[in-house]
Amino acid sequence: MPHMRSQERSPHCTRAPVRPGVPAIIVKVPGATAVRIPLLDLRAQYESIRAEVEDAVRRVFESQQFILGPDVAALEQEVAAYCGVRHAVGCGSGTDALLLALRALGIGPGDEVLTTPFTFFATAGAIANVGARPVFADIDPATFNLDPERARAAMERHPRIKAVLPVHLYGLCADMDPLLDLARQRGIPVIEDAAQAIGAEYRGRRAGSMGAAGCFSFFPTKNLGGAGEGGILTTNDSALAERLRALRVHGSRVRYFHDEVGTNSRLDTLQAAVLRVKLRHLEEWTRRRIRIAALYRERLPAPVVPPPLPPYPARHVYHQFVIRAPERDSLRSRLLASGIGCEIYYPLPLHRQRCFASLGYAEGAFPESERAAREALALPVYPELSEDAVMEICNTIARHFASHS
């Protein structure tokens, strides 16, 4: 989710695919069209809440409590209530949330963790960084998320799997009940990667409330994004919450006394203050994202396939609005040439990443993930996006396919 300075680049820039939010190396092409409709416009959001944010930041500076200050404790309580859980524990990033959850649940060297190959790198990277081995199962094309039946087959082949780590990709919860049942049968925990899904729901339950722990990111371009790095974990397990709080401060429950080796992953008070302001607006912003998604669904032309509506009751919060399109790269070039921001999430599934070559997965091992990587394209979706802009995007797509028919 690109930082706004990188997002307002020339649409003809040459660059490698990057994580949403991480600026890319930009090579400008002479005569390129300026971006008129960005993939995301954080400045528009800021202008709508500028006074509230600046007041919150000023209060933190006046207090001079920058580390785990009162705003962090208040944000943790507010996020816990929002997600429908007993505890929330702030940390340094969404990646740290995954690492802390894995460590707190005892996952380490020699263990295997089941997850999806179609997600941002941090999901499997966190597994590897605690010394465990990622085991992949393919996605359900109806949701872009971990397929429970393929997950079952993978678990039968891998008796050393000690946790299941589904991802609620693009703002849609995975099909959790069958995954939770699989984990219960094995007696292992489920860790929800909810980095893109705050406020999403599955059968009336909020993302982050169903597994042993939920992991959220506050990267600036998330639906609830800070002014820098940040993350939070959610859980209903009081003992687990206590261990997470210790692990984020070098394994210490009492200052200068360390029961285990933890890390430094504390959520800044300044970030918490900004996030508390934004959390008050999150439901309104989410409703607007849902309305924009509905308008896209009405207006997008064939042969574009809009994000699937899940085959179970769910609230999709549209962190990304990801279509499937034939000859996707040609459409992407047309949109960028027209000044319309778009992005590929994700161009190479994790089982094909060079760093995971030792896992032994060959091309074709997970055909649905590989097909999604060829076809998926994210269109602009953010609360401040106008309906006229949505219409222009849809009309540009229609003209593209009309000219190629």
What is the gist of this entry?
The chain has helices spanning 4-7, 42-63, 70-83, 94-104, 122-129, 148-157, 176-186, 238-247, 269-279, 282-299, 328-337, 367-375, 387-403; strands at residues 87-91, 112-115, 133-136, 139-140, 145-146, 161-165, 191-193, 201-202, 205-206, 213-217, 231-235, 252-254, 257-258, 314-315, 321-324, 376-379.
Termini distance?
32 Å
The number of domains: 2
Overall strand count: 16
Strand content: 5-15%
Number of helices: 13
Order of SSEs? HHHEHEHEEEHEHEEEEEHEEHHEEHHEH
> What does the radius of gyration come to?
21 Å
**Would you identify the CATH H-level superfamily of the largest domain?**
Type I PLP-dependent aspartate aminotransferase-like (Major domain)
What oligomerization state is this entry in? Answer: single chain
List its traits:
single chain, 405 residues, Aspartate Aminotransferase, domain 2, 4-stranded mixed sheet, 13% strand
Explain this structure:
There is one protein chain. By secondary structure, the chain is of the alpha+beta class. The protein has two domains: 4-46 and 281-403, Aspartate Aminotransferase, domain 1; 52-279, Type I PLP-dependent aspartate aminotransferase-like (Major domain) (Aspartate Aminotransferase, domain 2). It has helices spanning 4-7, 42-63, 70-83, 94-104, 122-129, 148-157, 176-186, 238-247, 269-279, 282-299, 328-337, 367-375, 387-403, and strands at 87-91, 112-115, 133-136, 139-140, 145-146, 161-165, 191-193, 201-202, 205-206, 213-217, 231-235, 252-254, 257-258, 314-315, 321-324, 376-379. The strands form six sheets. It has a four-stranded mixed β-sheet, with helices on both faces. Helix 10 (282-299) packs parallel to helix 13. The longest helix is centred in the first third of the chain and has 22 residues, at 42-63. The model is unreliable at 1-32 (pLDDT under 50).
